[in-house]
Amino acid sequence: MRAEGIRPRERAPRRVVAALALLLLQLPAGAAELFRYENEEGVVVLSSTLPPEVAARGYEVIDERGRVVRQVQRQLTPEEIRRREAEAAAAEAERLAAERRREKDRELLRLYGTPEDVTRALERRIASIEGAIRTVEGNIQRLRNQKRNLERRAADYERTGREIPEGLIDNIRVIDGQIAERQQEIEQRRGEIETTREEFARDRDRVRYLLGLTDDERD
């Protein structure tokens, strides 16, 4: 049982209410709800049944007093679903980033009371890295000394016309590889110094901001 062609803006409210009342009177006992939806022509329909093809487009459920008791939204298209999921993922990523920023800010204020504290911490970190570089340089020097000793032994074999043992040659090659590894470590450490300077510079600026320092107070 349905009443079609009812457009809220095309007919007077009394006629809509009258049509609704008439439909409710005609409903079987215990079936005091109507479905309101738009058909394919865009006409608002009041009906005691809901066609399956309409359910996907969304509808409203109305009680015996004409009040909307439930509203079912239309089904989203695959593109709308993808867009909604992308928006939700972006919002979640933004939320997590903000939480990480707040946690980082709390940690900065726990570690540093002033921007100068950041500078002193930077100096200690760089001193530690430079100390590690000096240690590696010392290891390289020891390896080079070992290599020179092996090369002298190889030269002795050559002067006496003897064949240089393969093990001796292998040892020299191993030391060359170790020296190359240590030199690469030094380059990485030097790069770490530059990265550390940049990180601490950002931390110093952030501490200034969190402490609310003015330009005059920052120097």
Commentary on this structure:
With 219 residues, the protein is an alpha+beta fold. Helices cover 65% and strands 9% of the residues. The N terminus is likely disordered.
Topology record:
Layout: E1 2-3, H1 13-26, E2 34-38, E3 44-47, H2 52-55, E4 59-62, E5 68-72, H3 78-111, H4 115-159, H5 166-211
Antiparallel strand pairs: 1-3, 2-3, 2-4, 4-5
Helix pairs in contact: 4-5
Provide tags for this entry:
disordered N terminus; 5 helices; 219 residues; five-stranded antiparallel beta sheet; alpha+beta; 65% helix
The N- to C-terminal Cα distance equals 81 Å
DSSP strand tally: 5
Give the helix proportion (percent range). 55-70%
What sequence of helices (H) and strands (E) makes up the elements? Answer: EHEEHEEHHH
Number of helical elements: 5
Query: What is the chains' assembly state?
Result: single chain
Low-pLDDT regions: 1-18
Structural class: alpha+beta
In short:
The protein has 219 residues and is an alpha+beta fold. The protein has helices spanning 13-26, 52-55, 78-111, 115-159, 166-211, and strands at residues 2-3, 34-38, 44-47, 59-62, 68-72.
